[in-house]
Specification:
Structural class: mainly alpha
Strand order of the largest sheet: 1-2
Largest sheet: 2 strands, antiparallel
Strand content: 5-15%
Radius of gyration: 16 Å
Length: 108
Amino acid sequence: MAHSGGRFAMAPPAAVSVGGAPLLQVGELRAHIAIIARRLDYLVDEGETLDPETHVLFKALAAHRLTLEREEEAIILQAAADGIVIDRRPDADPRAVLGLVEIEQAEA
């Protein structure tokens, strides 16, 4: 995924409580992330992102996916603090893993 080159800052910590089943929680999040990823891929493959209305949907889905990935990362970090190792997905968004958010720049 290409980035605009905008400035980045640390994202606020996700408000996720890790109960006794972090692997289950991560599994559920990953299932949702996979569904959204397939929807995004479909929109791109079909050229639907060129339509202004569908582009809004695309951006909303992408933002939701990033939110889920941030929650996934919070669970992974909390599990690690509790001595539980959960591997990260190879396709995890670096912004989620590193805790970065893109800062919108005001136009002059």
